[in-house]
Design goal:
The complex is a heterotrimer of chains A (348), B (200) and C (482).
Chain A: H1 2-11, H2 14-47, H3 63-73, H4 84-100, H5 119-140, H6 144-175, H7 180-185, H8 200-213, H9 225-228, H10 238-263, H11 275-280, H12 286-307, H13 313-341
Helix pairs in contact in A: 2-3, 2-10, 2-12, 3-10, 4-5, 4-10, 5-6, 6-8, 6-13, 8-10, 8-13, 10-12
Chain B: H1 2-22, H2 26-46, H3 50-74, H4 79-83, H5 86-108, H6 110-113, H7 130-139, H8 143-164, H9 176-181, H10 184-187
Helix pairs in contact in B: 1-2, 2-3
Chain C: H1 15-32, H2 40-60, E1 66-68, E2 73-75, H3 77-103, H4 109-126, H5 131-150, H6 156-187, H7 192-200, H8 208-225, H9 233-240, H10 243-250, H11 252-268, H12 273-296, H13 301-321, H14 325-352, H15 368-371, H16 373-387, H17 393-407, H18 411-437, H19 450-468, H20 471-480
Antiparallel strand pairs in C: 1-2
Helix pairs in contact in C: 1-2, 1-4, 2-3, 2-4, 3-4, 3-10, 3-11, 3-14, 3-19, 3-20, 4-5, 4-11, 5-6, 6-8, 6-9, 7-11, 8-11, 8-12, 9-10, 9-13, 10-14, 11-14, 12-13, 12-18, 13-14, 13-17, 13-18, 14-16, 14-17, 14-19, 14-20, 16-18, 16-19, 17-18, 17-19
């Protein structure tokens, strides 16, 4: 059975193989995005003592499908004085990098689309591109609010990218590799070997910067409903708006996955190295642990949104430049010293 | 296959570079520049220098050009004024450009820099890490120029801050530290009040 | 540099550079916490840095050329001598600037920090032994200078000058870099000694890539030196920048520029001497002509000194283009002497200025003799020396260069140089005439500080003493280029 499958797989042309692999990754992500929106409404609903959507399908489970259908069917309105080409290009540019970054994410020890040597750099490059979608959309809309949103977003994303980059440099120093698979393998041992412990400040900075980078609450000044209506996507409707929506949630999943991989041992089991429990749970497929970790961080994203009021713009900038960047730089020195001194159990 | 890919990317690169300087709208020009950077990164990838390629995208596309776009979007450039004198200086400009192009074609042409003058680069093994090699050589052989470059960047930071940061006396600033350090008790006083007696 | 084996660099040789860099960073940090009242501490630390660097450079001097950092750094006598003069000149610049900046609310830490980074850039250029390091040192210096010119934010002329300087300077860097890349393409090396050796053994046929490269390198250098026809930025920058910055630009960087000429053209491209000699002859003649003639028409003394700089650069090129050790040492002597004279010239403008009064017009020097006979006398020495009147140090410097030119069988060139020097003498002596024979328009007493007066007097007397007894410095320059 397995051999015939392999034979069939081998007979497919290489290009088609790659396309199939991409489809296998993208489709589940898109489904997750759809259900993440439902999860968001449910979670925030319960936090605010409401029920959330429960009409479409059993317990509201078909709600995302209905939402998607609605967005697809709605008319795409292009404002009169907008730059037509860029207006349509904006949402596409926003979504593309969020999906492209998944190419190097290892789901378990062997399951990765492209085992790129400089994977970490690739991730950093891709996450830094998402902002173009927002800027292009804001500018091409030819609208004041959209433009303000684009400006806010550009400044914010560039600022937080620095802290994010430095946090990743910490991971790089600790693991001694840019390859995401090797970074995970370097954290083997037990959950105390994971990098969240030696890189605790970087871990926090990275996750918070990730929240800022995805323009999520409490850093969602680019949208800022109460001040600039909906910011950069105020003029969008129908599927063009839907793409922005997809991009935002796909980015959330991506950031969660990255945090899990770089600081929480990726697909490694949290019970590894614990005498009885470790062996008892060894049968669980390792991809399950990665998905579980991603889910925890996604829940945090939703929890933040329900809890924190929006930051004021100057406070966002202050947090990024005056707090996060110094913290990361100082901790880089600490990590460097620790690696040189070969402090166990992480760096020996 | 690789050649086809190369020519496709090279064509896009050249076309977008030309468009950078010919399109009227500055925002479009910046976006074409982004495209040019992107395709040159792709060409570099074909040469197996993944570190430089990704760094180009990361630094130039991801950060520098975002700021560029940020500034250009806010400019209200009157193109008609910029074009004034364009026709007048055109003949001279074309003349100079032609001479330079011919000279360069002679100097940098295949006679001296043709493929046959250089050995074909060695294909590296799969475990060869371009990033590691670059890092090794930067911090050993080229450490001195590398550190000077760092000093140059520091000077750039100092210059940028010295030229832009100035406190205007009439502007009001928020003291963020004070705001952050505020506790509930500084702002809020909870008072227990006796309920008023019903009159009459 | 092409070899992959790595040898631990000898950091001790670069100790002065490391010291200046560390101190500049330290001063930057400390300055952040100083109140305006205590800012003088920044100034004192900057001076201490220069003194420390001088002690290190002299202490580490060994006489033998030594390479380190994979051949990109050289420590030799020429480098050490030039470095010590750079420290000295910069220290005097800082001293002159203190009062000037304080009065104009420009007394910020950035001026001194950028000044120190500029010094670092000059040091890197002086002891560079690779195209890459030369270029990086030049950029470090240039970037500091652009920023220093622009520091006076509210002045329109300063901002304009900074823009011009920046745009033209970047263009020049691009040219230089393009030329250097040609040499890298042909020789496959960035190391100056390797390129030099390759070009020396090259057969006589004219390789067009090399010719192309030489043109670009010389154009780039001419831009940076301010030689005609690439001089357009010089008068505007000298005029537009605050006088303290003009003083900085006009003095120490010239010494570094000489070092760059030596390292690039002589040591690196020595094999192509025939090609660049012709270009330098042209540049030198035009620079002396344009500089000296246009200077006559200037009413602003900063602009006048700017054109005088252009003319002096022409003389510097004369010395270098001879291609003989004698010519190089005379050019070195010339540039050091010029730096000291220019210190005095621009320093005098600052000495006479006060808040709200720049004293940068020639008319402002009218009747200086009545106001202060001593400083009129100092200015007299400086102007006579710049003009090259016999038995002043400027005369010895010009004489040394002319002798070298004649010895290289280019007597006609020496004659041309003399003619333009005679023309140039006119505008220097005009200042003397204005000081001694005109009636003062400005009668307010001099408002400069004590240390400024002392330093200014010392500066003038040093020029005087060098005129009487130039042989020590000539011997030093000759020894440095042995």
């Amino acid at each position: 059975m397995l051999e015939t499958l392999q034979a069939v797989w081998g007979s497919i042309p290489e290009l088609l193989q790659i396309v199939l692999k991409i489809v296998v990754i993208v489709v589940p992500i898109m489904l997750s995005v759809a259900y993440l929106t439902l999860a968001e409404r449910k979670v925030i609903g319960y936090i605010q003592v409401r029920i959330g959507p429960n009409r479409v399908g059993p317990r509201g489970l078909l709600q995302p499908i209905a939402d998607g259908l609605k967005l697809v069917l709605k008319e795409i309105i292009v404002p009169t004085n907008a730059n037509r080409f860029l207006f349509i290009l904006g949402p596409i540019v926003a979504l593309a990098p969020a999906l492209a970054a998944w190419a190097v994410i290892p789901f378990d020890e062997t399951l990765v689309l492209a085992n790129v040597d400089a994977g970490l750099l690739y991730i950093l490059a891709m996450t830094s591109l998402g902002v173009y979608g927002i800027i292009i959309a804001g500018w091409a809309s030819n609208s004041k609010y959209a433009f303000l949103g684009a400006l806010r977003s550009a400044a914010q994303v560039v600022s937080y990218e620095i802290a994010m980059g430095f946090a990743l440099v910490g991971v790089l120093i600790a693991a001694g590799s840019l390859n995401l698979r090797e970074i995970v393998l370097a954290q083997q041992g037990s959950f105390l070997h994971w990098y969240w412990l030696p890189l605790l400040p970087l871990f926090l900075v990275y996750f918070i910067s990730g929240v800022a980078e995805t323009n999520r609450a409490p850093f969602d000044v680019a949208e800022g409903e109460s001040e600039i209506v909906a910011g950069f996507h105020v003029e969008y409707s129908g599927m063009t708006f839907g793409l922005f929506f997809l991009a935002e949630y796909a980015n959330m999943i991506l950031v969660s996955a990255l945090v899990a991989i770089m600081f929480l041992g990726g697909w490694l089991s949290p019970f590894e190295g614990i005498p009885v429990l470790g062996e008892a749970l060894a049968w669980v497929p390792s991809i399950f642990w990665l998905l579980a970790k991603i889910s925890v961080f996604l829940f945090l994203f939703l929890w933040f949104r329900a809890t924190f009021p929006r930051y004021r713009y100057d406070q966002i900038m202050r947090l990024g430049w005056k707090i996060f960047i110094p913290i990361t730089i100082v901790w880089l020195l600490v990590v460097g010293a620790a690696v040189l001194a070969q402090i166990g159990p992480w760096f020996d | 296959m690789e050649q086809i890919i190369f020519y496709v990317f090279a064509a896009i690169l050249v076309a977008s570079s030309i468009l950078v300087i010919t399109v009227r709208n500055p925002v479009h020009a910046v976006l074409f520049l982004v495209l040019a950077f992107f395709t040159s990164a792709a060409v570099w990838l074909l040469l197996e220098v993944e570190f430089l390629a990704i760094t180009l995208v990361l630094v130039y596309v991801g950060a520098v050009m975002v700021l560029f776009l940020f500034v250009v979007m806010m400019l209200d450039i009157n193109i008609a004024v910029l074009r004034e004198g364009f026709i007048r200086y055109l003949p001279l400009g074309i003349g100079v450009a032609l001479i330079v192009v011919i000279e360069m074609a002679v100097a940098v042409g295949p006679k001296y820099f043709g493929l046959e003058h250089f050995a074909e680069p060695v294909r590296h093994m799969a475990d060869y890490s371009n990033t590691k090699e670059l890092g090794r050589i930067l911090y050993t052989v080229y450490v001195y120029p590398f550190e000077i470059a760092a000093a140059i960047l520091l000077v750039a930071i100092i210059a940028a801050i010295a030229l832009t940061l100035r406190r205007r006396p009439q502007t009001k600033y928020q003291n963020v530290t004070e705001q952050v350090m505020t506790r509930r008790d500084d702002r809020l006083r909870i008072i227990k009040m006796e309920a008023e007696k019903k009159e009459g | 540099m092409s070899s992959m084996t790595f040898e631990m660099p000898n950091f001790a040789l670069a100790l002065p550079e490391i010291f200046v860099l560390s101190m500049a960073c330290l001063i930057l940090l400390i300055d952040l916490f100083l109140s305006d009242r205590n800012r003088v501490l920044t100034y004192l630390m900057s001076q201490a840095t220069l003194v420390g660097a001088a002690i290190l450079t002299v202490g580490l001097h060994s006489g033998e050329p030594q390479l380190t950092f994979g051949g990109s750094f050289i420590s030799d006598t020429m480098g050490d001598v030039l470095k010590v003069f750079i420290y000295l000149v910069t220290a005097v610049v800082f001293l002159y600037s203190r009062e000037y900046l304080r009065v104009r609310q420009l007394f910020t830490g950035e001026y001194f920090v950028l000044g120190l980074f500029g010094v670092l850039g000059m040091m890197v250029m002086v002891s560079a032994h690779s195209f890459l390091t030369i270029y990086l040192g030049l950029e470090l210096l240039s970037l500091s200078l652009y920023a220093m010119v622009a520091l006076q934010r509210d002045s329109v002329t300063a901002t304009e000058a900074a823009m011009k300087y920046f745009v033209l300077g970047s263009l020049a860097s691009g040219m230089l870099l393009y030329g250097l890349s040609m040499f890298y393409g042909v020789t496959g090396s960035l190391d100056i000694a390797e390129v030099g050796a390759y070009l020396k053994q090259l057969p006589g046929d004219n390789n067009i890539v090399l010719a192309f490269g030489v043109v670009f390198v010389v154009v780039g250098l001419a831009f940076k030196l301010g030689a005609v026809p690439f001089h357009m930025w010089v008068p505007d920058v000298y005029h537009g920048a605050p006088t303290s910055v003009t003083l900085y630009i006009g003095t120490a960087p010239k010494i570094a520029a000489f070092a760059m000429l030596m390292r690039l053209l002589v040591e690196g491209l020595g094999g192509l001497h025939v090609q660049w000699q012709d270009m330098l002859i042209l540049l030198a003649i035009v620079s002396m002509a344009v500089g000296n003639i246009i200077a006559i028409a200037q009413g602003n003394i900063k602009r006048m000194l700017a054109y005088s700089t252009i003319a002096h650069v022409g003389f510097l090129l004369l010395g270098v283009l001879t291609g003989t050790a004698n010519g190089y040492s005379s050019a070195m002597f010339y540039i050091i002497v010029y730096a000291i004279m220019a210190l005095g010239g621009f320093g005098m403008i600052m000495l006479l200025s006060r808040a709200g009064f720049e004293s940068d017009r020639i008319d402002d020097f009218k009747g200086l003799n009545d106001r202060s006979p001593w400083f009129a006398f100092i200015m007299l020495i400086l102007m006579i020396s710049m003009a090259g009147v016999p038995v002043s140090v400027g005369f010895w410097a010009k004489l040394a260069v002319l002798q070298a030119v004649v010895r290289a069988d280019m007597t006609w060139l020496a004659v041309v140089a003399v003619i333009f020097s005679v023309i140039g003498a006119y505008y220097y002596l005009r200042i003397v005439k204005v000081m001694y024979f005109d009636k003062a328009e400005e009668t307010a007493p001099l408002a400069s500080s004590f240390d400024m007066r002392v330093a200014m007097s010392a500066n003038g007397l040093a020029v005087f003493a060098l005129g009487v007894y130039p042989s020590a410095l000539t011997a030093l320059c000759a020894a440095a280029l042995k």
